[in-house]
Amino acid sequence: MHRVTLDTRLDDCPLGRVTAAHDVTLTTPYWNLSPETGQCDLWVEASSPGRSQLEAGIRALRDADGVRRFELKWKRGSHATAHVVLEETVAIETVMANGGAVIAPFRDRDGWERWHLGFAEPDAAAATLDSLDRRYELTVVEQTPLTDSGAAAVFRNFHEAATLLDGCERLTETEARVLRTAVEHGYYETPRGESLASLGDRCGVSDVAISKTLRRAERKLLGAAVSALAGLDADSDPPAARPGDGG
């Protein structure tokens, strides 16, 4: 197996056109292509910096050319979920024609769509990229044989990887910024390159506030990591002996 990650601008895809014109990010975790109708059935997660940007993005997607069905399922604050049916794009048709598959959610932001594709053979991946490059603007981010242990581990341990990602997504913007600053400036090094007081100065808050923010961020990330480790440990345990087994 061969995995390809690429960024592309799809002028025939409503998702790309909407994110090029509006401050909204569209993530598609689930989708299905119907060979009978030639349409793509999507579940789209929309997020924006604020409610007004989200509303504008949702309206634009609902009314976009190529959208055959739009049903808003859930909306709260600056996040929403919608069921969308689109006409098949040339890009999807090209991937399928070469025996490829989308192996992870794809995401649209600023007019660019990130895809993670899987192919049985590198030659099929190369043929797909060559065809897409003639039709679209694209950048290949990464190509990885899935025989590579690190790449394959993500798929074998999808639930654990999702648990870690969930921990990251639960961080508030402030928690993520403070944690990133702490790591970048050596707060977690031995000896420490940054104290709570100096870290607070960098972030413009008191050392007490920094300490509380770091503890909240650490609790979320460590909780997710411990949960993921528990799943990895369970997967690595040998199967329990069945009644009647020897030994």
UniProtKB/TrEMBL annotation:
Keywords: Transcription, Transcription regulation. Residues 171-222 form the HTH bat-type domain. Residues 4-137 form the HVO-2525 N-terminal domain. InterPro entries: HTH_bacterioopsin, HVO_2525_N. It holds the Pfam family HTH_10. It comes from the Archaea. This is HTH-10 family transcription regulator.
